[in-house]
Each structure stands twice: as structure tokens, then as C-alpha cells.
Amino acid sequence: MADNHTIASIFRHDNSAPAILTTASSDPKNITLAYADVKGQSERFIQLANKLYGKEIPAGSVISSLLPNGLACLLVFLATTFQRCVAAPLNPAMKQSEIEFYLEDADSKILIVPEGTSEDNEGVKAAHKLGVPVWGVGWEDDAGIKLAVLGDTPVELPTFKHQQISSINPQPDDTALLLHTSGTTGRPKAVPLTHANIARSMLNIANTYKLTKSDRSFIVMPLFHVHGLIGSTLSSLYAGGSVVLPSRFSASHFWPEYTDSKATWYSAVPTIHQILLRYDVPEPLPNIRFIRSCSAALAPTVLHDLENKLHAPVLEAYAMTEASHQMCSNPLPPAVHKSGSVGLPQGVEVAILDDDGNKTHLGEVCIRGENVTRGYLNNAEANAKSFTQGSNWFRTGDQGYIDEDGYVVLTGRIKELINRGGEKISPLELDAVLLKCPGVSEAVSFAIDDEMYGQEVNAAVVPKDGAEVTEDQVKQFMLENVAKFKVPKRVFVAQELPRTATGKIQRRVVAEHFTGKQQ
Ligand code: ATP
Ligand code: MG
């Protein structure tokens, strides 16, 4: 069972050690599950699910869920994969039509929601419309996980004794997880990830940060994306360490709960780091070993402010759904971590290729490794474009180069490069300069259609609290710091930038928001 090539390899360590902890603001509160309890609860879930289904749920069935972060969410994921089914966790903030799209695209057989969810819930409405059964999951103090058809009484298991059951039997080639990409550059693509893909990613991440059983990760990212699920949670469990699972990210509770939980690290998107910088940190912050930033570009100023405030290394990593999360990361000290770089390849091969698949200095970042998906679901066109013929490199869609020390530097998404009269301008490079402009706290540059040049550069900036920033000041600053053709023709000063559910910037959406024109 504890095959190192499946997610069940988390049970190869000391099973009496703590695995999952909840906090005072979680539901259920202040619980610690040892690895043995996680195993027992997973087996309990499998039994309950099979009983509800009326027979053993066939291997390969997709089980979707709409659950906030917490014990139930993680256990439903683990148990689903252990019983050789495919977990498809979804964002509970979505609307009915979005949930319908994901349920249909994944061919979901069951939707799991928190017990007590109303019939008016967007997900419940979506599932009913498609004829997908909806089950409610909950927790009871003495027995643990409970399950019922939504609105019914929970299933009973009078003879439950987990020691006697062995329903945990995943195989390396089984698809364990079906997630969609964030949809930053177009329609989200369905990415199946096998146990072997995920196990390799867990191993790579544990190696990068030298995670051990003494490590404890505080989970702030949602478990319905690879960052929270694999980057923060499964990597810790793979190393035999533990995870602290608050129900949701709360900036005002973060530092007190982080300190109480004795966590040694956390991983988040740059937006969250930026928000956390506004709150007081208990001094000295005990136990913290490092902070990880991933999923979007970390501005060098934010990295430096965080390091000054927390006295711990801030390590930027580079990840994507298709790679079961991490591809590159800056290493722990004493090795050098560089701001503005996503670090070194971590257990994957990285090459910079041109359109014809030849190596070049500045080009598309391509990767190869056991953590990479075998291909998108039902999307032959995207698969043909994404894998090079013969050599089987996966094209990330990101542009970048490898510096003299082997560190990867990203210069932007290929689809988002600003092409001004044939001159390709990296929006990421411009954002970094804009962020150095006095008084600017957030910045995003983007392309707008232009009669003369095909595309022209525009930007939007958010001033720091209390700072006065004008369009002319920003343009003047850019004139002094970048070549004239890269200076934004217009700069919008705003209090907020539109972001996706995952905190990412869709430059196309930002452009439409500020210019009022479809790009
Ligand atoms: P879609 O593929 O649907 O357009 P997406 O690429 O945003 O959406 P994800 O898989 O969530 O979907 O994100 C992966 C992408 O996030 C990477 O390809 C890269 O563009 C970006 N990214 C990840 N880490 C970093 C980083 N440290 N710096 C800059 N960009 C990053
Ligand atoms: Mg992508």
C-alpha cells in the first residue's frame, strides 16, 4: 500500500505522528489527526461512500467537491484517490453556470458539499440540473467523518473497525486529481494528474525545502488548486510533517494563529504576502524556517520587505497545474536565492526552446519530468500544441531565459507579450520597474490595440496608502528608467486592480476594465 509512487506513500512514516491540525477558527475546531487517524478516516469515508452509492464506486469515477479548506476537504480528497477514484475539487465561490461547466467537462458522478448546504446553493442547483447526486459531508466528535445524501440522515456504519479493512489501494498510473488550469489566458483546460505525477511532485518539493517530520506548514491557499493542495499540503505529509488547516485565509488572524500553531513555513501567492505585510508580526517570530511565494511574479520590493520584517528567507517558486505544481524554486540558504528569478529546476529538466523546438537563449520555457501530466483531457488540439514532437518537452506558454548561474528568469506569458510594431516588450519587466516608482504599491502593464503600432503599452497602478501618484509622475519615472518605446502611453491610477479568484492578473481583463475596449 505504501508504494512510494502513490499519494498513499504519506503513510510510510511513523503513523502515530501528527498529520493534520485544525485551529480555533476552523470547523471542526482544535483537532489533531495522527497519520493513523487519517488512514482510518479515509477508510471510513470509502465505506460510507460505497454504502451510499449502493455498491463499490467504480475505479476512475470522478468525484467533485465544493468544500471550504478544512479537515473534510482534505479527507475527501485523500479518500477519493485512495479508492482509485478521481478527485475534482472545485472553488465554492463559483456561480451555477461555471459549476455546470466543470461538472460536465469532468463527467462528474457525484458532487460533495458541506452537510446542511441549502438547496439554493449554486453548486446544488448545478448538480440537480445535470442529474448529478449531491452528498453532504460533516464531522461528528466521536466517530469522525459522516456522509449523507444532501438533506437525508447520515449513513451508519455500526461495525466500523478500520484496522480490519484495507480499501486503500491506489496504483501509480491511476488518475488521482482532475483540475482545470486557472483560465488566465483562455478557457480553462482540464488536467488529469496521476498518483505517480503527484508523488513525484511531493518528493521534489520536499527535497527543495529539505522538509522533515519536524516541519509544519500553515495552509493559506485553497485546496482546490495545486498550490494549496500539493505545494503546501501533500509535500509536508510526504515528508512525515504536519499541516495546519484554518477554514479560510484571514489576514487579521494569520500571524496570531501562525505563531500559536508553531508552523515552520507557509506558501502563498504574492497578493497574500503583500496583504500580510500590512499586519504586525509578533517578535521574534518563532520556528519560521522559510516563506515560499509562488503562482505569480513576486515583486523584488515585496520580497525584500518580507525578509526585513520576518527575518527568514523568502523563496520564489514557479509552478503550474500541468506540472502537478512546482517546476523551479529558489533554494534554501546557504545557496543563493535571487529576487526577480524563479530559481533552479527542481527535479525537472528545463530547456528554452524556439517555435521550431530548437534551443535558444530567450524563448519558451519547456519542461520534462515525471510530475508533468500526460496531456489535457479531451483536448487533442491543446495537446498537439503543448508537447514537442519526438522529444516530448512540455511547452509552458511562458517566456524566459536561464541566467549564467542556471537560475530561470521569466519575462512574461507568450500570449501576453506586448508586440509594439514588432518590438516584443515583456510586461513582467515593465511591472517590476513600475513598482519602483515612488508611491506605487501595485502595477500592471498591458497591451492595447493601436492603429499605428498594432499594439501599444498601457499600465495601471495602485498608490500606496496615503500616497499621491499621478499619470505624469509615473510616465516621467518610466522615461528615466526604460527605453522610450516601452514607456506606457497611458497610465491609469486606481484604488484596486481586477483579479481572478486565484489572485492572478489577467492582463486582457485589466486592459478592458480600464480602457473600456475589448482587446
Ligand atoms: P491558463 O493556463 O488556463 O491560462 P494559468 O496558466 O494561470 O491559466 P495555472 O496552472 O494556475 O494556470 O498557472 C500557471 C502559470 O502561472 C505559469 O504558466 C506562469 O505563467 C504563472 N506563474 C507561476 N509561478 C510564477 C512565478 N513565480 N512568476 C511568474 N509567473 C508564475
Ligand atoms: Mg497555463
TrEMBL record:
InterPro entries: AMP-bd_C, AMP-bd_C_sf, AMP-binding_CS, AMP-dep_synth/lig_dom, ANL_N_sf, Pcs60-like. Keywords: ATP-binding, Ligase, Nucleotide-binding. Residues 29-377 form the AMP-dependent synthetase/ligase domain. PROSITE patterns: AMP_BINDING. GO terms for biological process: fatty acid metabolic process. Residues 429-504 form the AMP-binding enzyme C-terminal domain. Belongs to the ATP-dependent AMP-binding enzyme family. PANTHER family: ACYL-COA SYNTHETASE, MEDIUM-CHAIN ACYL-COA LIGASE ACSF2, MITOCHONDRIAL. This is Peroxisomal-coenzyme A synthetase. The lineage of its organism: Eukaryota, Fungi, Fungi incertae sedis, Zoopagomycota, Kickxellomycotina.
